[in-house]
Amino acid sequence: MISAPLFLVSILLILLASSLWIGFALMGAGVAALAFFRDLPIERVLAGDLWGRLNADELVTLPLFILMGDILYHTRLSESLFRGLAPWVQRLPGGLLHVNVLGCTLFAAVSGSSAATTATVGRMTLGELDKRGYDRDLSLGSLAGSGTIGLMIPPSIPMIVYGILAEVSILELFMAGIVPGLMIAACYIGWIMIAVWRNPAIQPDQRDASSWAERFRALAELLPLLFLVSLVIGSMYSGLASVTEAAAIGVGGALLIALFQRTLTWPNIKHALLSTVRTCSMIGLIIAGALFLSKTMAMLGIPAATANWVGSLGLSPYMLILMLLVVYLILGMFIDGLSAMVMTLPVALPLVVAAGFNPIWFGVFIVITIELSNITPPVGFNLFVIQHMTGERQGRVALAAAPFCLLLLALIVVLTVWPQIVLWFPALMRA
Amino acid sequence: MRTALLAFCRLIDRLCEAGAAFAALACTLLAAMLIFESFSTAALGWSQPWAVEYGSYLCAFTLLSGSGYALTRGAHIRVRIALEYLPAGAGRVLDLACTLVALTVVSLLVSGLIDLAYRSHVRGSVSYYVMQTPLWIPQSLLAMSAVLLWLAIAARGIRLMIGVPPEQAADTQAPVHQRHAS
């Protein structure tokens, strides 16, 4: 007789490959496995699970952070970011290309989505960089790569989902993401400088010099964003607010910015709310499917069976991480990273924890793999966004983003060898 | 017949839009309630006794009530490779098969949620929070949200069978990242 793990994986792959929506595929695989291997009232298990999980307290942060990002999308923050950052970077090797990296890093601190970060920053920078004659490939690649920082710097939607599924502190995950997020930004800035040093032709020869007075005046453009960052991240890390309260404060702050910039109009509010509803529905269906599948796997003893099987292979902890990295890279080419994470977590997390890795560290690892999946073809959200904004072929955007993919892979190696880089900040805050 | 079916599908679209409006309202109430909660606990030292409980219900409505609407706008994620590489006719058959599988899964969900709300009503179950809300109320609203999703999938199937595009045009006002969710 066919084993439960093989049956479940086969059904899931068939459903996914046949283009069924991912949330339904996860539920469908769970339903089929329960029908085949257990004599249970499936509809009651499914409904009870949905009711118990969708109104869990931890999920409340999710719609709020999404709403905050959607309100900000309709403000003039992208223009402010460009005007505020440009005078500071135009003299550096790489010049305004660094606005992509720094703009995404700053916007990441108020947005939990990689695609939203890419779209918000890119709608201003891409046109400006083209107009000034910067190398098109480096503009596209640096934007695609930098957009992924949106997932690592808190607030981060995949981290919230991971925290819920893995039952670890979302606040600690947020803390753990800060240093790797800044490291990614530093790597990207370094790479742009090296690329310009190797081939100066990719940067136009017009380095407008801004005076110090102009630079400091430009900083005023960043004040709304810095105000919101300090409000959200500051309130969380100082202990003045819980993650949920910080998310609510963030929505309030985003509304204040919109009011201040005179973009708080009824059409903008309506579009922001409907956009939030679409994103929440999309994520909600995937989470519901993943949690049901996870429960089904537990009922069928699949995580334990898989752990035994992997244990029999005698893999070292590093080999296990390498194997998971390969799995996530392959999955990430065909499925969006968030779905890949929720599908595999019930099996992967016990393995990783048994191998001696910290679940908070694994959360950061998995978010980097999601970042990678966003810039690897054929299914890469950031690539789709840039493709839509510029009309470029996906292949060109993917090729332009390839060096940034390699940098992310290098960072995974560094964080795996020195996990303290991820864990010291949460430990410091706990102490 | 075709006209009647299309009219039925349009009626379902309107119902799904009402579901999205309900989800948007739930999200707005959730944000307003928690903004007030942050202020009241910090400044007044008073916490709304209903905040945690009703916040969780509002969150559930935000996540599920607009799901039918999201389907009509192509916002749910799927791996489209097979659909893109198959000839148009075969692609439509595959799409229809996917729609039927989704309909079957959601039928189970709808049946389970209605049963859950009914059992809560019959037993008089209330929440374990201070407000002791009768559970059948939020559970019924969640069941209605699942019914809307079921109807949206059914309308999608009907549109595919009569050869009409199953999804509405993307919202041109939506952020660019939203238009690429599917």
How is this structure best described in words?
The complex is a heterodimer of chains A (431) and B (182). Chain A is globular, with a radius of gyration of 22 Å. The model of chain A has no long low-confidence stretch (mean pLDDT 89). The relative contact order of chain A is 0.15. Chain A is 78% helix and 0% strand. Chain A has 431 residues and is an all-alpha fold. The longest helix of chain A has 34 residues, at 266-299. With 182 residues, chain B is mostly helical. Chain B contains six helices and no strands. Chains A and B meet through helix 1, helix 2, helix 3, helix 4 and helix 7 of A and helix 1, helix 2, helix 3, helix 4 and helix 5 of B.
Question: Which features does this protein show?
Answer:
heterodimer, A: 431 residues, mainly alpha, globular, B: 182 residues, elongated
A few lines on this structure:
The complex is a heterodimer of chains A (431) and B (182). Chain A has helices at residues 4-17, 22-37, 42-54, 61-73, 77-89, 97-108, 114-131, 136-147, 149-152, 157-166, 170-198, 212-219, 223-237, 243-260, 266-299, 302-313, 317-334, 337-354, 359-374, 381-390, 394-417, 420-430.
Range of helix content of chain B: over 70%
Instruction: Please mark out the parts of chain A with pLDDT under 50 across 5 or more consecutive residues, or reply none.
Output: none
Give the termini separation of chain B.
31 Å
What is the number of helical segments of chain B per DSSP (H or I, 4+ residues)? 6
How would a textbook summarize the main sheet of chain B?
A: none
Form type of chain A? globular
Average the pLDDT over all residues of chain A and give the rounded result. Answer: 89
| Total beta-strand segments of chain A | 0
**Overall form of chain B:** elongated
